[in-house]
Design goal:
By secondary structure, the protein is mostly beta strands. Helix content is about 5%, strand content about 50%. The chain has two helices and 19 strands. The protein has helices spanning about 220-225, 250-255; strands spanning about 1-5, 20-30, 35, 45, 50-55, 60, 65, 70-75, 80-90, 100-110, 115-120, 125-130, 135-140, 150-160, 160-170, 175-180, 190-195, 205-210, 230-240. It has a seven-stranded antiparallel β-sheet with strand order 3-8-17-10-11-12-13, with no helix packed on it. The longest helix is centred in the C-terminal third of the chain and has 7 residues, at about 250-255. The chain is globular and about 75 Å long. The two termini are about 20 Å apart.
């Protein structure tokens, strides 16, 4: 028999006068640990390792909660009391006057109770927001990071203490804030959100999402395998057919 592999190559002939044709199909589906709030499928793209959002007008702020394509990850119950997560973000907003572009990594209970770490055009450096029962407080970061467009964001949650961390590409990890006064509890998700005040055809990519515990250093987490945003399944099917002695099978295989 002549076997055709997935690359279309003919493998060594086996006895029996048959040809085995192998076909493969690939299917994808969103990882069941992820959901999207206020989904607008025309304005995001998801791969196995990344989530790219086209910036749209919207917000996640007190009573003004119309942020589209808020991606949420559900940690396992056993993970929620001691969790450290990191994400790489490309396309982070730089400091600009009169703009409100935002990229946020979110410890999210609901639209009115959350903590974010990220960058905003209208605030300095790596900044953060704490919202409790529809009252939000925004805090600026260090202006030396104003022009950083690619880096990592981190959230650590243990014993009710939230530590927000960040790293510019090529830099070192810094702790931005330690927060104890919040309304998160142990019923939360991890969020990924980005928005703008006016359309400038920008997008932001979240990638290399890693999950561990507070015992894991950031360097350890960076070396871990990413949590996939989508699952990829490859199915293989083999069909065996009789060779026709009047057809030069090898010639057919070499020309098709």
């Amino acid at each position: 028999a002549v076997t055709i592999n997935v690359s279309g190559e003919a493998l060594p002939e086996e006895p029996g006068g048959k040809v085995t044709i192998t076909t493969t199909t690939t299917t994808t589906s969103r990882n069941e640990k992820f959901s999207i709030t206020r989904e607008d499928a025309a304005h995001y793209e998801m791969t196995q390792n990344s989530y790219t959002v086209d910036l749209q007008s919207g917000d996640l702020w007190q009573w003004d909660n119309n942020l589209k394509n808020l991606l949420l990850y559900e940690p396992a119950e056993g993970e929620k009391e001691d969790l450290r997560v990191i994400i790489k973000v490309t396309g982070l907003p730089v400091a600009e006057s009169g703009q409100w572009d935002t990229a946020s990594f979110i410890l999210y209970k609901d639209d009115n109770n959350y903590i974010t770490i990220g960058k905003k055009s209208h605030y300095a450096g790596f900044c953060y927001v704490v919202e409790k029962n529809e009252t939000a407080v925004e805090t600026s970061g260090d202006s030396i990071y104003n022009n950083v467009e690619s880096g990592y964001l981190g959230i650590t949650y243990k014993d009710g203490i939230v530590t927000l961390s960040a790293k510019a590409d090529g830099g070192t990890w810094i702790d931005v804030a330690n927060i104890t006064d919040h309304t998160i509890g142990n019923d939360y998700k991890i969020g990924f959100g980005a928005w703008e005040s006016n359309d400038r055809s920008k997008n932001i990519t979240f990638s290399d999402f890693k999950v561990g515990t507070s015992e894991d250093s950031f360097e350890t987490l960076e070396a871990l395998e990413s949590v996939p945003f989508i699952n990829v399944t490859v199915n293989e099917e083999k069909i065996e057919i009789e060779k026709n002695p009047n057809i030069d099978t090898n010639g057919f295989l070499s020309n098709h």
